[in-house]
Specification:
2 copies of one chain form a homodimer. With 245 residues, chain A is mainly β. Helix content of chain A is 7%, strand content 40%. Chains A and B meet through strand 7 of A and strand 7 of B. Chains A, B: Keywords: Hydrolase, Metal-binding.
């Protein structure tokens, strides 16, 4: 099953079933790309827990060692953006990068989840762009200016239940139609169950919380007006643009 | 004015006026320490933005340089705890520390706030314990296991409007009645308006969001069963205990 959260023409927030570009709710159907609806992020996370260096090829391109346990960082709710949105990056920065990621949407409140039970707390998967302000990220201990700025986590449009997404699902980005990243869920250093077990050793996850599982190699800069696509095989494609003041 | 959020004997969440140990709501009055009410954190932050090394004497005791701009890190809502609560620290750690802080509670949604207008977005001040799991903090790039674990941000019980809190308000901690920290708001390297201006250059703050402004020297370890008090002059005293599994 696939779902899309959206604001309908009357302004009401709905969660519809999604199939082949069309969102169905009650007796109504809408084209995902129609101006009649405002597509929203697929959940309302209280926090987004992000994983750094979870693909060996990306750690290598960043000149970083492989971590011996998941490297965690946080994006708060102000970082959310949705399908079709224009994200305004922090002003006056040299380098703002895209990072295509498979997002895990949590379905129930949980803590101390064993790996073997971890998929039970997953509502589904979505597409995330972990937008990164490298100017500040490279100067900060904690990546707040670098990773937690407004709009730094475009997400969606589809939440796909786990059965829709193959174990080797492709994770791709395109900028202005050109393929930039082409990784696979199989390449994750720490698997989704390992991430859930580790995070919930310390933090309670709430329904709607998102784990952004890390990005494969091929990250790069965004220029003013660029159109970004984040594709996760079995989920769909998130599209948004960027403004660089 | 001083306020306390609490759950009344019927389970309803109320915000009462606070005076001399008593909370007033409508026709009812309750002793703050009474078992009839459950004292809650003074707001429901979507994020807590914390400031590291904002007192020179604390940076010195940690062997850290002074930052040339505010050092930011994040605690998500799972970190919240309230007055009278028992916080369970992450299991099996050597060193869990208290850190007394003046908390700033935001009153309105805001971004790009100039320093000169910053106090207009402040609802009031509260007491925060920035509990720190040093074992993990010292090994992490981003302090998630170290600072964002469940219960890592006890807060409250009182929200005091800014006029109640002197410019040189004392910020103190006591453990089992013994004074451990005794700093002053005057010692902040970056003032509250400077912090609000810097944070809102990047992040939108929401009503109820909290800025934890940093801790003075004298931080130290907590043992199982310790009783902690965090006092901010003009606000009051937050009390909670800790469990060290």
């Amino acid at each position: 099953m696939k779902y899309v959260r959206f604001r309908d023409p009357a302004g009401a927030v709905r969660r519809g079933e999604y199939e082949n570009g069309t969102v169905h709710f009650a007796n109504e159907s809408y084209d995902l790309e129609s101006d009649d609806i405002d597509v929203l992020p697929p959940s309302e996370p209280s926090k987004i827990v992000c994983i750094g260096r979870n693909y060996a090829d990306h750690a290598d391109e960043m000149g970083s060692d492989l971590p011996d346990r998941p490297m965690l960082f946080l994006k708060p709710p102000n970082a959310l953006a949705g399908h079709g949105d224009t994200v305004t990056a922090p002003a006056g920065k040299e380098r703002i990068d895209y990072e295509a990621e498979l997002g895990v949407v949590i379905g129930e409140q949980c803590r101390h989840v064993p790996e073997a039970d971890a998929m039970d707390v997953v509502a589904g998967f979505t597409c995330v762009n972990d937008i990164s302000n490298r100017d500040d990220q490279n100067q900060e201990q904690n990546w707040v200016r670098g990773k937690a700025f407004d709009g730094a986590a475009p997400m969606g449009p589809v939440l796909a239940t786990p059965d829709e997404v193959p174990a080797d699902a492709a994770v791709r980005s395109r900028v202005n139609g050109e393929l930039k990243q082409d990784g696979s869920r199989e390449q994750l250093i720490f698997s989704i169950p390992e991430l859930i077990a580790e995070i919930t050793t310390y933090l309670t996850l709430e329904p709607g919380d998102v784990i952004a599982t890390g990005t494969p190699e091929g990250v790069g800069p965004l220029a003013d007006g660029d159109e970004i696509e984040i594709e996760v095989e079995g989920v769909g494609t998130l599209e948004h643009s960027i403004r660089r003041p």
